[in-house]
Automatic annotation (TrEMBL):
<protein>
    <recommendedName>
        <fullName>Cell division ATP-binding protein FtsE</fullName>
    </recommendedName>
</protein>
<feature type="region of interest" description="Disordered">
    <location>
        <begin position="264"/>
        <end position="554"/>
    </location>
</feature>
<feature type="compositionally biased region" description="Basic and acidic residues">
    <location>
        <begin position="284"/>
        <end position="301"/>
    </location>
</feature>
<dbReference type="InterPro" id="IPR005286">
    <property type="entry name" value="Cell_div_FtsE"/>
</dbReference>
<keyword id="KW-0131">Cell cycle</keyword>
<keyword id="KW-0067">ATP-binding</keyword>
<feature type="compositionally biased region" description="Basic residues">
    <location>
        <begin position="545"/>
        <end position="554"/>
    </location>
</feature>
<keyword id="KW-0547">Nucleotide-binding</keyword>
<dbReference type="InterPro" id="IPR003439">
    <property type="entry name" value="ABC_transporter-like_ATP-bd"/>
</dbReference>
<feature type="compositionally biased region" description="Low complexity">
    <location>
        <begin position="272"/>
        <end position="283"/>
    </location>
</feature>
<dbReference type="Pfam" id="PF00005">
    <property type="entry name" value="ABC_tran"/>
</dbReference>
<feature type="compositionally biased region" description="Basic and acidic residues">
    <location>
        <begin position="531"/>
        <end position="543"/>
    </location>
</feature>
<dbReference type="InterPro" id="IPR017871">
    <property type="entry name" value="ABC_transporter-like_CS"/>
</dbReference>
<comment type="similarity">
    <text>Belongs to the ABC transporter superfamily.</text>
</comment>
<keyword id="KW-1003">Cell membrane</keyword>
<feature type="compositionally biased region" description="Basic and acidic residues">
    <location>
        <begin position="344"/>
        <end position="355"/>
    </location>
</feature>
<dbReference type="InterPro" id="IPR003593">
    <property type="entry name" value="AAA+_ATPase"/>
</dbReference>
């Protein structure tokens, strides 16, 4: 589905490429951890999937579309097929949780009723329906990240990219985020997550892709954070750590078996390269870091540009294609598509879900409807929209208990104008114009058709549990390792314990421990906020114009 072919990407002339001759594939429904030292190219790889920057060499195709051939004006639509979650959340600070999530639907022209219904549904799924009216600074970091995830998935993306989504979170909040990502993946969304969190990677036992100075050095179907001892990736890291003086701080690799440097998946063996070759640096773009940041902010703002007030994106594409003289864009040398939105056949979605649901969700606490259970406090309290934002931490927080229902197939039928939405609106009946799919989410357990995509079996436990390090570790490494194992143990119990048994005290402690509201990390994100607000104002202005015109007609 996502294919990098000998991709090289440099930011500065003559500098070391951020990605260096990287060839790799990510399949539909994959859950991939992207690991590597700071500066190894993880974020660059994620951004390139989002088409933020093109390779100077090589080719990236997503769902058969060559991103290098994609017309600029199609990029915003393409990006709406992809959800993105950042370490610093990037919520709009002057919007409530509800409106942050609703914003992503408003920019595609969804109607008020659709937005209200869908946003409420998604907030329930991430356990935030009771905090819908809070502002980002009134909720914890973990809750902010869940809101950011809700925003990322509200339009049913085919791909979810997460750049260190647990980087600012404590273990409990991290575990909840991972539960959600696991569930999203089980619903068929490809999840690619850059992380430095050893415990999470080791606990999940998912595919691990490791970068080192822009090169792909490891691709394991079910990997741990540390490369297998003796492998080339392990040797590279030992050398790097010795050079940087980090070795004494770092734990020894957890396994003793040597595996090939790059171990392609069984079904990808033909296409995955055995190793990443060093390539001559191409002529890089002559842009400064600040220009790059501005470009990113601009590109993200493009995403926020309101779409034509048409129906769903697919419908809109078909409508445009049906118009006389409408463009049909050749987005790939091999594939001619009408839409840049990433869609795959219904049966494959169902098959992927059916195949994945049982195994992927199994480790997370679930309620009777197979929803991840969140530790939001007493289960006795009714779930309702919080209408008392003045006392942000005094209300009881109810657990999510809505049916999970991945409904990646639903499409929204947009109305001509996006309207301001309030989560306290008491109207609950969907409008007649709303898509039935939006009203009735499919049951996850429904078996898919025969076209089931084979999925590698999930390991019962990470292999690390049974394997001892081959060599005695230095004292310093043991010191570093203890907290890591504590964290691993904590995560394990967090995954396994039923939140019904968790106390409200624990919940509030967690909330207290992570209440700091992160400032935008970079000028790019600040610019994104500003551009998003500008877009918001443009929306408002256009609505005012529409209403004025209507009044004039009357
Ligand atoms: N906008 C930019 N302009 C110039 N160089 C950049 C830019 N973004 C990243 N780089 C450089 O590209 C290389 C890869 O950076 P990248 O952010 O992809 O690494 P990373 O693995 O995500 O690091 P981290 O774990 O610290 O987030 C680094 O050397 C970095 O300095």
């Amino acid at each position: 589905m996502i294919r990098f072919e000998h991709v090289t990407r440099s930011y500065a002339p003559g500098g070391r490429p951020a990605l260096d001759d990287v060839s790799i594939e990510f399949g539909r429904g994959d859950f991939v951890f992207l690991i590597g030292a700071s500066g190894s190219g993880k974020s660059t790889l994620l951004r390139m999937i989002l088409r933020e920057g093109l390779p100077q060499r090589g080719k990236i195709t997503v769902a058969g579309q060559n991103l290098g051939l994609m017309l600029e004006r199609r990029v915003p639509e393409y990006r709406r097929s992809i959800g993105m979650v950042f370490q610093d959340f990037r919520l709009l600070p002057d919007k409530t949780v509800f409106d942050n999530v609703a914003f992503a639907m408003r920019v595609i022209g969804a109607s008020r009723g659709q937005i209200r219904k869908r946003v409420t549904q998604v907030l329930k799924r991430v356990g935030l329906d009771h905090l819908a009216k809070r502002y980002p600074h009134e909720i914890s970091g973990g809750e902010q990240q869940r809101a950011a995830i809700a925003r990322a998935i509200v339009n049913n993306p085919a791909i979810l990219l997460a750049d260190e989504p647990t980087g600012n979170l404590d273990p409990r909040a991290s575990a909840e985020v991972m539960k959600i990502l696991r569930w999203i993946n089980a619903a068929g969304t490809t999840v690619i997550m850059a992380t430095h969190d050893r415990a999470i990677v080791d606990r999940m036992g998912k595919r691990v892709v490791q970068l080192h100075k822009g090169k792909l050095v490891r691709d394991e179907r079910h990997g741990l954070y540390d490369p297998p001892e003796g492998s080339e990736a392990w040797q590279i890291l030992v050398k790097e750590e010795a050079e940087s003086g980090l070795r004494a701080e770092d734990p020894a690799p957890l396994r003793t078996q040597a595996v090939p440097l790059v171990a392609p998946a069984e079904d990808e063996a033909e296409d995955s390269p055995a190793s990443a070759n060093s390539a001559a640096s191409p002529e890089p773009a002559r842009r400064s870091a600040s220009e790059e940041a501005t470009e990113q902010a601009h590109e993200q703002a493009q995403d926020a540009t309101p779409a034509e007030p048409s129906a769903s994106q697919e419908d809109a594409q078909h409508e445009r294609a049906a118009e006389p003289g409408a463009e049909t864009e050749e987005v790939s040398t091999a594939t001619k598509t009408e839409s840049v939105r990433i869609v795959w056949p219904e049966e494959q979605k169902a098959a992927r879900y059916d195949d994945a649901a049982e195994s992927l969700i199994s480790a997370a606490p679930m309620d009777s409807d197979h929803m991840p259970v969140f530790d939001n406090g007493s289960e006795d309290e009714p779930q309702e929209v919080d209408e008392h934002r003045d006392s942000p931490r005094s209300e009881p927080e109810a657990p999510a208990s809505e049916a999970p229902a991945p409904e990646r197939t639903e499409s929204v039928t947009a109305e001509p104008e996006a309207e301001e939405v309030s989560p306290v609106d008491t109207e609950t009946e969907p409008k007649a114009s709303e898509s039935p799919a939006a009203a009735a989410a499919p049951e996850p357990a429904t078996p898919g058709p025969a076209a089931l995509a084979p999925t590698a079996p999930e390991p019962a436990e990470p292999e690390s549990a049974a394997i001892k390090p081959a060599a005695p570790e230095p004292l310093a490494s043991k010191r570093r390792r203890e907290p890591d194992q504590d964290r691993l143990a904590w995560l394990t119990s967090a995954f396994e314990e039923q939140s019904a048994s968790s106390t409200r005290t624990a919940s509030s402690e967690t909330a207290e421990s992570s209440t700091a509201v992160p400032k935008p990390k970079s000028s790019a994100s600040e610019a994104t906020y500003a551009d998003s607000r500008r877009t918001e104002e443009q929306l408002e202005a256009s609505k005012r114009g529409i209403f004025r015109r209507r009044r004039g007609k009357r």
